[in-house]
Amino acid sequence: MTGLIILAAGRGGRFGQPKQNLIFQNQTLLNRAIETAMASTCRPIIVITGAYAELLDTPIESPDLRVVFNANWEEGMSSSIRMGIEIMKDNQDIDRALIMLCDQPLVTPSLIKEMLEKQQKSGKDIVGCSYNNTIGVPVLFDQTIFKELLLLEGHEGAKKILKNHPNDIATISFDGGILDIDTQEDYERLIKDHQS
Predict the structure, then answer these.
(1) Which class in CATH covers the domain with range 2-193?
(2) Contact status, residue 152 vs residue 160, Cβ threshold 8 Å
């Protein structure tokens, strides 16, 4: 079984307001990420909140969805990854974990499905998404990598693990991964490029 972790704890310092609550196609970015995750076969879904926990609305209720507050969110992304992996490793049924961000609004259930299938076909311990000449999130980790994920510190994210395992990675092309919402300009471009 594959668990899924949505990282939504950051302050988004460059943006100046909770990115998680930005509206795209009539949904907040966070709820869009949750719906995308729920539409996949991944279970359970763990949402890690932090900086704006009290301002985030997660109206979707399901026994498969758990929203967890990371009191150490100021440490950086690593603390949220560790928290999610701690939850996953305690569940005997979970043998893989997929990590995604709430500010990559173009992630779809079909992309997640493709990643799971790629892992099965390739037998690789890691499946990452390739875009803009890099490999990044969403990224799928086999449980054999969990121990390393638990050792991440500060602002380290999954990239450090990817660098340590160049021969253990299969990739999926995901052009939409280029767009993550870090600035007001990113958000305006997203809205402009995807007007219905």
Answers:
(1) alpha beta
(2) yes
